[in-house]
Amino acid sequence: MKRIYLIDGNSLMFRAYFATAYTNNLMKNKNGLYTNAIYGFCSMLNKLSEAEMSNIFVAFDAGSQTFRHQQFDAYKGTRKEIPQELLMQIPYIKQFLDIMNIKHMASLDYEADDFLATVARLAERAGFEEIKIITGDKDLLQLVSPKIDVCLTKKGITELDEHNIENFYEKMGIHPEQIPDYKGLVGDTSDNLPGIKGIGNKTAVKLLNSFKTLENIISNASLVKGKAGELIADGARIGLECKQLATLKDDIELEFPLDETKVQHPNHEGLVKFYKEMGFNSFLEKLDGKEIKDNTIEVSIIDNKDYNYDKFNDVTLSVEVFGDNYYNGEFLGIAILDDKEALFVTNNAINESLIALLSDKKRTKNIFDYKKAYVVLQRLGIKLVGVVFDALLATYIINPITANDDLKKVADEYVANNANYDSIIYGLKSKAAIPELTVYANHAISKCHTINKLKPVLLKHLQENEQMPLFSMELSLSSVLGDMEIDGLKVDREKLEEVGKELYAKQEEIANQIYNLAGEQFNINSVKQLGEILYNKLGLPTGKKGKTGYSTSSDVLEKLVKKYPIAQLVLDYRGVAKLISTYIKGLFEVMNEKNFVHSLYKQALTMTGRLSSTEPNIQNMPIRTEIGQVIREAFISRFDNGLIMSSDYSQIELRVLAHLANDEKMIDMFYHDADFHKQTASLLYDISADEVTSNMRRTAKAINFGIIYGMSAWGLSEAIDINQVDANIYIDKYFNTFKGVKTFLDKTIEDAKTNGYTTTIYNRRRYIPELKSSNNALRKFGERTAMNSPIQGSAADIIKFAMIEVSKLMQGMKSKMIAQVHDELVFDIYPGELEQMEEIVRKSMESVISLKVPLVVGISHGKNWLTS
């Protein structure tokens, strides 16, 4: 059967782009190229290729120089410019079509619609039994005939609104050939065609049913009742012009014969290379015929304790728990998959045989998010061991951008899969609910199948990237973090209440000071009211202006604090308000009846390898301000007469920089155990260390830490309140002093531009697509990120390795590791174990890696976290 598909290329690529652009989810490949439109277009074409067809043709628009633009200056004049993020993808979409051997065309003289109309008419005359046009443009509806169907896209190309000769009049109320007449009457906002002013849809349809064509309507305008007749007479010229512009040209002299639209086999080698370059691993897997159906093994639901699990050895697991917080969530069951059986064991069916399987180190397990499963099962009295593969951690190490708590989102980056999103199964937020048992049982098994598909692909990446040692470390760390989450931190409820009262009183005191300076009371939290007081009433200098008025953001207020006390008071008020909402109300919300909080650590979130935490966010526990430090006073030991011990790496990121840069001066300074910032100031100012003032040391400290974060002269000038010229002089002198640092940072940026990523000491990668951005600000951000990532990432890796070592040496002790805050580890010390714990922690943290400079750990202890 001769069946041709005609594709509106512009329509499909715009649909593909904006489907994810509206959610700011723009996919990128490893080189920083935006790929969401390419991916969507390829997906649509691949789906379309499943249909039976003999021919296929794709048409594109080429610009704004067509004959219509020349006839009517305002044609499509209201359309927004194509986003740069989409524009850069168009050549790759056409490259894909070339590889697929699909004929496509674009011309400056004509629009895509004209080419589609011309090919459709040619196919009609050539005896094609079926001609299908896929588009989102209603202009093409005028082509509908007994052999031509126009399918308007509604959802990708899986949902199409088909217009054919049988249903057209019922859908539209007019006939296909009347579409140009209709547009002449009502216009077309998308093409900026005005039509006849005042004529609406219903009137146009009624007129066309009576008079058939626009010309007849104009000739009989006197017969049209009411004001419509006058409008038609007055707007006749523009109406006819709009009709002409809306009429497709279907007789273009093509540069190719219709035979060239025949379906051909794609260039397989070229397609493999293209998919690899774009990072479309799921397409690659389908291309190579590796797709495994997820329903190859029928799922058996085990709902009693009689089942024997002794036969299982190497299995894949999915632990299902309902709720955003898995520590408090409702355990639903465990999916178990091997090469012969697929089981879902409900929460009522756990027996000794299953516990033996899960707690046997020799019987290996594959999983997604080991830490989550470890915590959930530990709360049931089961210690999950023997996990040899975690798809979440593997993905995170390969490229943190692709890591996600939802397995489906991870899998779609690498393999073809039939898994579903957790949100589809369980719902979101207020609409979340536990579905029927068979639904989540099948979902869990589907995830197991997906994990098995991911395993060889991800392991290959890890091996090629030489990241297996890093993967093993993260896997070991999962149980360490899991134990920390389960043990939690003890809170002194009475002390927290006392701190809360003090903060509320402090907030009220600051508010009254603000009211006194303002001369009236107002809502300090209202940006609008605050702006009126500061800028209109008090006349403070205005800074950045937004849509709602002048900004009252922190960076604006900080520039005003020296001259205007009210600016500092507003900042202080906000600081106290944040402490109250985050650490007073916040802690009470997550504290349980035993006065413990169980913070959950995000092991696969940050781009650098650092841990983050939630409920509460331990990483952001305030330490720099006196008022913030009192929050730490509320964290106490769980043991009678117990102590809280804190161990903190001293200037670890600067030590890592010295090692990576191999800077002799910096290395020498660290080996002499001097005040590093003071010594830096001594070198910068060419004076002895004894002559260094506190301001000189502050400047040196700002530069030392600023260098790590790629601080510019402007950033330094803001940080220490000097002009940019002086800041530039300081930075130049710094790099002249530490020449190895300058060489290292420059090389790091160049390597990142070449490779697309940076690496840590342990070979953790961070991809930085911003380095290839055409936007200068983004590119500069990428350079700063490149400078910082190897340093911060290496420091994060070092403390992770140290945590594992500390945990091993703590076996058999009653003391507990309870928190990690970047460079600091916090312990709850059992009475009588302090001295042994200090020895274990210091030895482990200081000897975990051999750098060119010594690692130094400061250890303190006290009755609470503040005094530790």
Structure description:
The structure is a single chain. Helices cover 48% and strands 13% of the residues. The chain has 35 helices and 25 strands. Helix 2 packs parallel to helix 5.
List keywords for this structure.
35 helices; 48% helix; single chain; Nucleotidyltransferase, domain 5; 868 residues; Rossmann fold; DNA polymerase, domain 1; alpha/beta
SSE diagram, text form:
Layout lengths: L2 E6 H13 L14 H13 L6 E5 L7 H5 L12 H4 L2 H10 L3 E3 L6 H14 L4 E6 L12 E8 L3 E5 L4 H5 L6 H8 L14 H11 L2 H6 L7 H8 L1 H11 L21 H11 L2 H7 L11 E4 L12 E8 L7 E8 L4 E5 L5 H7 L6 E3 L2 H9 L8 E4 H8 L8 H8 L7 H5 L10 H28 L3 H20 L1 E3 L1 H26 L8 H11 L7 E2 L2 E2 L3 H5 L6 H26 L5 E2 L2 E3 L9 E3 L11 H4 L5 E2 L6 E7 L2 H10 L2 H8 L4 H10 L8 H15 L4 H8 L3 H14 L1 H17 L1 E3 L5 E3 L8 H34 L6 E6 L2 E6 L4 H14 L9 E6 L6
Helix pairs in contact: 1-2, 2-5, 8-9, 8-12, 16-21, 17-20, 18-20, 21-34, 22-25, 27-33, 27-34, 29-30, 30-31, 31-32, 32-33, 33-34, 34-35
